[in-house]
Each structure stands twice: as C-alpha cells, then as structure tokens.
Recover the amino acids of this structure.
C-alpha cells in the first residue's frame, strides 16, 4: 500500500473513532468541543470557524485532506449535535460541497465515493447545478459511472442559457470518456459502454433551451 493511501485510511479510521465517541456522549457542548479540537488539530481552525467561511473560501484556503476532514466533521455535527432542522441540513450541504470539491483527487474519490453517494441522497432536493456537476466529476474520477450519469441528468434541467450549454458539453464528454472504460470497471457500476454512449447521444440531441433561441426577425 502506498504511503498516501495508508495515511488517508488511517485518517478515515480516526474520523470513524471520533464519530463513535460522539455517539457515546450525552452533552452537546462536549460533542461540539471534540469536533472543534479535531478540526483545529487536523485543519488548523476550529469547526465553528470553518462553518463561518464560504465554500469558495474553504476551497481556496485548504488543501484536499483538510477539506475531506472538515466535510466529515460537519456531517458529524449535523448528525450528532442537536441543531434546528434547517441548520443541520445546511451543514450537510456544506459537507457535500467540500467533499465533492475533491473531484481531482483519485485516491480520495476512490475511498469516499460511498460517503458522497449517501450524502447526495440525503440532501438532493437542496442541491444546485454546480453541486451536482461537482458530484458528477467526483464519481467520474472514482469510476462510479452509474452515479455520474445520475448526477449529470439531475444537474442539467436546473439551469438555462450559456451555463446549461457549457455543462451539457462537459456532460457529453464525461459520458463518452466513461464509455471507453474497460469491461470490468463498467460491470462494477452496472453500466455498459453502449448505455453511456446512448446517454451522450441523448444529450447531443437535446433541443435548445427556449431561453437560448433567438427571436425571429
């Protein structure tokens, strides 16, 4: 096992142990303290500070590993600390955005694909197109092409205009690239190259969005 993967697995184990200890505590103040301390140790800032920063700031400030850790900690707070429903859901969305932002990190995507799948299912109605496109990129990196395809087809109907056209073109490219994966990889995600090419063709044949049509002279 290479050093980086071993380090990631050990960190994931530490996060799992922290969540187990959080579940054993009865006091929300103690749970929040434990989360803040772990965040300060691993990410250089308390969890409360990370919560106050925008998603864009966290992506710019933090390298991939601290972003993965903060994602887990935010989800842990949403699940183990007593919060108003809206606040807990907002934390889950923030956790998803941090995790999905790691779509260029092959090892992290491989090891955290199941986590992102679960989180996406829980907060799907709250996600915007950029969130879903990041999820699609993440699943493409992890070679979870079934989940990638779902995210792409969930993302595109939510937008119009130039943004939709740009994302449609990227979606077609992702699907066609996935269709060239080896048979074993495709079987693992219950897809075939033919199915992925058909999805790409479906997007290629989409009629222009009404907002994109020019008015007749």
């Amino acid at each position: 096992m290479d050093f980086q993967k071993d380090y990631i697995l050990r960190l994931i184990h530490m996060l799992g142990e922290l969540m187990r200890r959080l579940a054993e505590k009865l006091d929300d103040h103690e749970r929040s303290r434990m989360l803040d301390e772990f965040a300060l140790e691993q990410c250089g800032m308390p969890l409360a500070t990370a919560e106050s920063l925008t998603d864009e700031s966290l992506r710019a400030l933090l390298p991939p590993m601290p972003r993965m850790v903060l994602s887990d900690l935010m989800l842990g707070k949403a699940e183990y600390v007593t919060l108003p429903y809206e606040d807990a859901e907002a934390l889950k969305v923030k956790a998803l955005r941090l995790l999905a932002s790691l779509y260029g990190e092959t090892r992290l995507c491989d090891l955290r694909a199941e986590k992102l799948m679960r989180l996406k299912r829980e907060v799907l109605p709250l996600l915007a197109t950029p969130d879903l496109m990041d999820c699609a990129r993440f699943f493409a990196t992890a070679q979870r092409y079934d989940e990638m395809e779902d995210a792409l087809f969930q993302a595109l109907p939510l937008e119009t205009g130039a943004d939709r056209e740009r994302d449609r073109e990227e979606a077609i490219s992702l699907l066609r690239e996935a269709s060239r994966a080896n048979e074993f990889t495709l079987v693992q995600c219950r897809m075939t190259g033919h199915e992925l090419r058909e999805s790409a063709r479906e997007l290629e044949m989409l009629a222009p969005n009404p907002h994109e049509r020019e008015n007749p002279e």
